[in-house]
Amino acid sequence: MRKIRWGILGSASIAKRAVIPGIIQSETGEVAAIASRSIESAKEVAEEFEIPVTYGSYEALLADNSIDAVYIPLPNHLHKEWTIKAADAGKHILCEKPLALNANEAQEMVNACNQAGVILAEALMYRYHPRYSMIRDIIQSGEIGDIRSIHGAFTFNNPMNRINGNFRYKKEFGGGSMYDVGVYPITAARMILGQEPQAATVHALFSEEYEDVDIMAAGVLEFDHGVALSFDCSIWAGARNTLDIIGSDGRIEVPSAFLTKQDKTDNIFVITMDGRNEVRREIEVPLVSDYTLQVDVVGRAILNEKNLPYPSSDSLLNMKVVDACLKSAKERRRVEL
């Protein structure tokens, strides 16, 4: 099988820590080139991962006709620019979340990729892990009854991000907790329920010290039939990474919901059934890399000209929800979608 030749636009930590290894381990792809605005940085990463070609500019990589697809791990405010430039160069695109800074930007990106006839995928890797197909099967079986509510939490605290002036703390770079980690529980609820929310109510802590970015947010999304997602997210709080799905007859708890660790103790979810005697059982899930699975799903879509399970239209809908959440937090009111 022909392999997709990937080019990496930038030497971000997520690229080095997760996505480049994911491509290397994949069945469908290979890392053919990396570009950075610093050729020294590109060469350093290339040496570490034995990447054959390096470029000192993103434009040079996009001009390489041997590259089939690019991965964009750049700061959030650069996603639109380089996605459109990559599409114009005829490259398929895997872009880090969030896809854009707002739904208008996302629409421009989707339009550019559709016009160029290239695939645009948002890098929300957790959705490709088999635990979520297992969870959806259990829900569809009726085992926990009707879904009553979902709660998701994704918070972390990395002091070095603040010390080093990380983009997450810069408003003009698309910083803030909603963009960085809030998108995870939001996409999870939309994925599990298979529907779009009707309204958002969010309260956030906007930091005067760090350019008024939201360093913590908590909110509620209203779905059909009285079901709600309650969530909180933060880039400066104690670490949590959980998802709870509460049904009429039981509940599912996912203790490591959005970060897949290669550790058997973390790769479980728990079903608890109500009754006179509560019954609890742990379900083990495969020890596999969701980054590799993500690359292979995108790769097979490119090779076989198939639709993605989460197409760019889904990312556009998600940005509309994020827009509503941020508007609610800033205006301190309920926002209908």
Automatic annotation (TrEMBL):
The keyword Oxidoreductase applies. It comes from the Bacteria. Keywords: Oxidoreductase. InterPro entries: Gfo/Idh/MocA-like_OxRdtase_N, Gfo/Idh/MocA_domain, GFO_IDH_MocA-like_dom, NAD(P)-bd_dom_sf. GO terms for molecular function: nucleotide binding; oxidoreductase activity. Pfam families: GFO_IDH_MocA, GFO_IDH_MocA_C3. Residues 4-121 form the Gfo/Idh/MocA-like oxidoreductase N-terminal domain. The keyword Oxidoreductase applies. Residues 134-253 form the GFO/IDH/MocA-like oxidoreductase domain. Gene3D superfamilies: Dihydrodipicolinate Reductase, domain 2, NAD(P)-binding Rossmann-like Domain. Belongs to the Gfo/Idh/MocA family. PANTHER family: OXIDOREDUCTASES (PTHR22604), TRANS-1,2-DIHYDROBENZENE-1,2-DIOL DEHYDROGENASE (PTHR22604:SF105). This is Gfo/Idh/MocA family oxidoreductase. The lineage of its organism: Bacteria, Bacillati, Bacillota, Bacilli, Bacillales.
